[in-house]
Amino acid sequence: MNPTRRRRMWLIGLVLLGACTAIALTLTALNQNIQHFFSPSDIADGKAPGTRTFRLGGIVEEGSVGRSEQSLKVSFVVTDRFRTTPVEFSGILPDLFREGQSVVATGAMDPQRGVFVAREVLAKHDENYMPKEVAEAIAKAKTRQEAAGTAPPGAGAP
Prior knowledge:
7 strands; single chain; five-stranded mixed beta barrel
């Protein structure tokens, strides 16, 4: 192989190595910042990523909202109509937040207490809207329950 061709091969190799390194670093950074969506059934099945940040979606269970009188701390239960997950949030809730409505909360699980600690809570924006992820999670949980042959009492379509 002549020297010119050898230099070109080395140059092409270095460029490819640099491009692969840049792509690997970019994908690693994106993977660390991604927030996956999980339903209460997914959390109960152990699919949620432990103490890493993720999104929890479902419906605020009727009669589950409790507010602290000394602070802005609020606790409530999110359900996909098959399983439930207790949630704690400290801050001001959206105006549209209420029992029986869809929510998506961003935060992480506290494994010692088994509580989802939310840092952000988003509520639905009109009476007919349910986030796509929440609707899909409820449908998946219903399908799993029907496949197992056990559905909780009063569990109907969302």
